[in-house]
Amino acid sequence: MSRPVPLAETWRQWAPRLQQAPAVALFSDFDGTLAPIVRHAARARLPLQTHKLLQQLAQRPRMFVGIVSGRSVADLRRLVRLRRLGYIGIHGLEVAWPRQPVWSRVSAAHRARIEKAKTDLEGSLGDIRGLWLENKSASVAVHFRNAAANALPRIEREVRRVHRQAGGRLKLQSGKKILELLPALGASKGTAVLRMLRELPRRLGARPFPVYLGDDATDESVFSALAGRGLCVRVGAGTDSVAPYFVPDAVGVRRFLRYLLTLRSG
Ligand SMILES: [Mg+2]
Prior knowledge:
Blueprint (H helix, E strand, L loop, with lengths): L4 E2 L4 H10 L2 E7 L18 H12 L3 E6 L4 H8 L5 E4 L4 E3 L6 E2 L3 H18 L6 E4 L4 E4 L8 H14 L4 E6 L2 E6 L5 H16 L3 E7 L5 H7 L4 E5 L9 E3 L2 H14 L3
Helix pairs in contact: 2-8, 4-5, 6-7
The structure holds magnesium ion (MG).
Magnesium ion binds next to loops.
């Protein structure tokens, strides 16, 4: 990990590569990258301009657009409302190609285990104000953005206890103001993106040049997976990352998408 440099400073180097690549695969995280972080994750919205840009990009020939998130694919499809896009949900545990049903690695036994973990956490943390336990069916997310800071040690302790009790069958993952328990199946955003990339030359008729945008710790697995073979951009300034470049915020992301659209429209 090191400190990324501003993408704008090296843009001249990337523009011709993105323009001349036989195909481009643009993958992006959702929350904090395409959609602003809001107080309650259920109220997240994709800005209209970003929606339009994604739609236009996905309509370009030899261009693939995929959304990669900790949210479920069903949730992403409801929020993004673009059928031409590919979706990777629950940190790689769910995959859906454009207009295709969701393919999930999570079995009924996993779901039962997740449900049990959620019930357990409800029992031990249910009294904490502002805490939101979300059962995504394939995982349970503990959102503590709106909980008091002095409740955090107890939240962490309880989540770790439930994790320990699962005896290696659940994995504990942390992101921005969120702790999450999910089936330990060795999946990550990075492995899921690589799997989609392997399939893309057949669908696009050319080997795509990969681009990835993300703002959180869980996006680092994609940056690592694509190191040396694509353009990796971390969203947000002042954070160490495997990604060599950064844009400061969602406005920077939009500017990049607009520029990419221009380059692929020539
Ligand atoms: Mg994010």
